[in-house]
Amino acid sequence: MAEPAAQAVALAESLKSLGLTKYEALVYIALLQASEATATEIHELSGVPRASVYPVLERLSQKQLVSVSNTSPRRFNPERPDDAIESLLRSVEHDAARAKKNLNRIYSQSARRERGDQELIWSIHGGDHIRLRLLEMLQAADESVRIIFYWDHLKGELVERLLSLKKEVKIEIITDGWSGPVPGQVKVLVKAPPMEIQKEPVTNWQAGCVFIVDKKKAMVVMGSKDEGFTALYSESMGFVRFFTMYWNFFLNWGQ
Fold this sequence. Notes:
By secondary structure, the chain is an alpha+beta fold. It folds into two domains: 1-118, Arc Repressor Mutant, subunit A (Orthogonal Bundle), CATH 1.10.10; 122-252, Endonuclease Chain A (Endonuclease, Chain A), CATH 3.30.870.10. It is built from nine helices and nine strands. It has helices spanning 6-16, 22-33, 39-46, 50-62, 81-115, 127-139, 155-163, 195-198, 237-252, and strands at residues 66-68, 76-78, 122-125, 144-150, 170-175, 186-190, 207-213, 217-224, 228-234. It has a seven-stranded mixed β-sheet with strand order 3-9-8-7-4-5-6, sandwiched between helices. Helix 2 packs across helix 3 and helix 2 (22-33) crosses helix 4 (50-62). It is rod-shaped.
């Protein structure tokens, strides 16, 4: 029995990454060198122990990498390398997809157990951080955006971002004022603040905004230019439901 050549050993290592064992790879490489070889010849060419050759050939046959003749003694032929590699890659991709699905299921179950009934609400501080998270949230909208907007700080940039959304996204805005034409895909409802708030000096005003995207995500922004801004963000059903009720209250306020 010959020792496997260095090139064959190196190739075998590469084939192992595609799901073959070392012996399977060595036997397949040996068959490429000598088609219609018998088990004894494969043993001599590959360096695989004689007792292991038949089980290895059986596994290669199951993987559709080797065909077997009905002659006596039986002779074995390899599939073309292109076809063999394609078959191995499909098998690896299938196994990887199945593993990914099962791992995600395990991860989700574990996350639910750890979280229990807790609904995660994220606190975001600083105008720049709030701006980036808000614009990112709006850009991801697929179906609807609802906004209560009593804050001049980002109005121009927000309107620009809203107009860049897909035409299918329904956009509704409740605000204290709107200048200029209303774009066709946007519905704007102007509701001025109560008179007692309007009489306050502008520097004392507290800005407030609610953003609800696809009925699945919500962000609330509060603060002032003097004191800074804070936002709360969550995708929890309770949080979104609460601020959807808040939206409906504003929608019907004053009617």
